Amino acid sequence: MSLRLIVAEDAVLLREGLIGLFERVGHKVVAAVGDAEALEKAVRADRPDLIVTDVRMPPALGDDGLRSAVRLREEFPGLPVLVLSQYVERSYALRLLDSGGGAGVGYLLKERVSAVTDFMAAIERVATGGTVVDPEVITQLVRLHQDPLERLSPREREVLALIAEGQTNAGLAKSLFLSEAAVNKHIGNIFNKLDLPVDTDGHRRVLAVLAFLRS
Question: Where in this chain does the record put each HTH luxR-type domain (predicted)?
């Protein structure tokens, strides 16, 4: 898969490194910018297959990159965005992840991206409408939203909280002293109660956590 990308990163060395990495695997970087205003102009001039942006960028050196990503997702519904940041910007992170039903969006922490193959897989997943969220991002957002969804039973809320921490089904079974079959049943009930359709496929777990956060 060859993608047309826009990279928004104010650190020149990192920006050039990302450009080289993307082009080495066959993607085309149609624009590389160092501030949020330039990002918005570049997207409007040449809508890409995917935006890769940092959170903290000029002009204000606050959460300008993330705010621009949210605005662009509102202006161009379905525009895939992957945030690659050093930290979790809580106020706008949930708004970004909630946009477009959580499809075609990702939020990864730079320090935890250690394997090029995994990073490239994340890029392609977001570009094709999938969802990729660093478990640490989910954990920090969960802490801000402690009210559970009323539709879920206490056990289902417990399962969902562990999913938010990045637990696998096997890990859930071990933590809760349940069989994997029982865990699968609880997860299925959660998906059904949150009205997550089957065609959302692999990222239903993330969408379930986002639904929990929205509550």
Answer: 145-215
